[in-house]
Amino acid sequence: MSDQRMTTSVERVFKKLPDGLIREITISYIHFLNAAGDIIRSKLDKSIPGRLFKRATENERSQYGEVMYLFPDEEVPVRLIALGMDYQDGKYGRSL
């Protein structure tokens, strides 16, 4: 038998879109470990697109969710607010 074990991890990232909105992406990985518990190899399991966000103005809030996120190309975290979905036409765009 092999001494190799597996474990998983989930990473939540945000990707800037051309229209100025920001897409939440949940990434799932499978990690292969040796007997000592060190990661010897990782494999992307799946990538799931999530909600749409936008940069919040000073007093802007959203009942759908808020998050502080540091983009790799920026020096300070920004506050993002989730956009609500209009379920009649299937498009995002409402924020409270």
Question: What can you tell me about this protein's structure?
Answer:
By secondary structure, this protein is an all-beta fold. It has one domain (5-94). It is 0% helix and 59% strand. The strands form two sheets. Strands 1-2-3-5-4 form a five-stranded antiparallel β-sheet, with no helix packed on it. Strands 6-7 form a two-stranded antiparallel ribbon. Strand 4 and strand 5 (78-82) form a beta hairpin. The protein is elongated. It starts with a strand and ends with a strand. The mean pLDDT is 86.
Essential attributes:
two-stranded antiparallel sheet; 7 strands; mainly beta; 96 residues; elongated; 5-stranded antiparallel beta sheet; 0% helix
Structural class: mainly beta
Number of domains: 1
N- to C-terminal separation?
56 Å
Q: Note the total helix count.
A: 0
Rg over C-alpha atoms, rounded to the nearest angstrom: 18 Å
Major β-sheet profile: 5 strands, antiparallel
Mean pLDDT: 86
Q: State which percent range the strand residues make up.
A: over 45%
Helix content class: under 10%
Please give the number of β-strands.
7
* Overall form: elongated
From N to C, what is the helix and strand string? EEEEEEE
Low-confidence stretches: none
